[in-house]
Design brief:
The chain contains 14 helices and twelve strands. By secondary structure, it is α/β, with parallel strands linked by helices. It folds into three domains: 11-54, 434 Repressor (Amino-terminal Domain), CATH 1.10.260.40; 66-167 and 301-330, Response regulator (Rossmann fold, 3-Layer(aba) Sandwich); 169-299 and 334-340, Rossmann fold, CATH 3.40.50.2300.
Length: 344
């Protein structure tokens, strides 16, 4: 039977073509053992030949669940985010959910569009890590009004109405800076992102506390804010080379930017760590490839993804309340490698 390629094939088309009841077609496509293997094969072969697609959406509308969870992240080309997504995917797939993943590309406008898309796709819940320039959560109100659960991870909104999953960034920033000070550094640059995000504000606050506790004056010009890309690391190295006197320590809020900053300084003849000691953040694989190996903060991305997904699914199953959870803090740790060891 010639079929219109524009037409969506239905079980009624299959029933008419095979002269079999709609009920039998439906059972066969659900792999019901009531239908004989021979009949089932005949039906599934024709379904494949004609391009039949099971209408999960219509079925899900009847059950009020799509079994889809939305994930909005700033960047997909991030090792840290890929580990978070791996953790999320493990938990959601085991629980029978599919993921829809969208990236904001560090733009609040794209993030807003992604939120609308997720809402229109009727996701059962949403997991979000915010863009650099997101300063409020008003675009999530459409989820809130419909009581569709969402929670934030890593880059979170500074509002205790919503569940947030993150590490103690203040403590991590403090430990990284205190380690550099213990190695004899006194002129420590902090390379970070714009302080619109709590995660970077907290790391900066930890950096400042470590300086203060060791009687080292805070200098504004030692805080370099950019988008923490590899290119930003190269640019920051240029600024560091121009400083008089030259800094003797650098704490960078991610490893990618740290590595490119370190390599650019090395190319200019700066000895690492003898002249300038380095600590990064995230424990990306690149930290073990660069020479010398980069000291860094280990950030448990996979664990973060697992915990975020479990919390959301527990809520969807009626086992917990998103609002009651508030903040979940995961442990991080300083990993000391050759890039910061002035005293061995």
């Amino acid at each position: 039977m010639p079929m219109d390629p524009e037409k969506e094939i239905t079980i009624y088309d299959l029933a008419r073509e095979l002269n079999i009841s709609v009920a039998t077609i439906s059972r066969a496509l659900k792999d019901d053992p009531v239908v004989s293997k021979k009949t089932k094969k005949k039906i599934t072969d024709l379904a494949e030949q004609l391009g039949y697609r099971s209408n999960h959406f219509a079925r899900n509308l009847r059950s009020q669940r799509t079994h889809m969870i939305g994930v909005i992240i700033p960047r997909v080309n991030s090792y840290f985010m890929s580990t978070v997504i791996a953790g999320i995917e493990k938990v959601t797939s085991e629980a029978g959910y599919n993921l829809i993943i969208s990236q904001s590309s560090e733009s609040v406008d794209r993030e807003k569009e992604a939120v609308k898309t997720m809402f229109n796709n009727r996701v059962d819940g949403l997991l979000v890590s915010l863009a650099y320039d997101t300063t409020d959560a008003t675009h999530f109100d459409i989820f809130d009004r419909k009581r569709i659960p969402f929670l934030f991870f890593d880059r979170v909104i500074d509002d205790n109405r919503w569940t947030s999953i993150l590490i103690d960034n203040h403590k991590a920033g403090y430990e990284a800076t205190a380690h550099l000070i213990a190695q004899g550094c006194r002129r420590i640059v902090h390379l970070t992102a714009a302080s619109t995000q709590k995660v970077y504000r907290d790391r900066l606050a930890g950096y400042r506390q470590a300086l203060e506790e060791h009687d080292i004056p805070f200098r504004k010009e030692y805080v370099i804010q950019n988008n923490l890309t590899p290119e930003a690391g190269v640019e920051a190295a240029g600024r560091i080379l121009a400083m008089k006197p030259r800094p003797d320590g650098v704490f960078v809020a991610n490893d990618n930017s740290a590595v490119h900053c370190l390599l650019t300084l090395k190319q200019a003849g700066v000895r690492i760590p003898e002249d300038v000691a380095f600590v990064g953040f995230n424990n990306d694989p690149v930290s073990m490839v660069v020479e010398p190996n980069l000291s860094t903060i280990n950030y448990p991305g996979y664990e973060m993804g697992v915990i975020a997904a479990r919390n959301l699914i527990q809520h969807l199953g009626g086992l917990s309340s998103i609002e009651a959870t508030n903040t979940i803090l995961l442990r991080s740790e300083l990993i000391v490698r050759a890039s910061s060891l002035k005293h061995r």
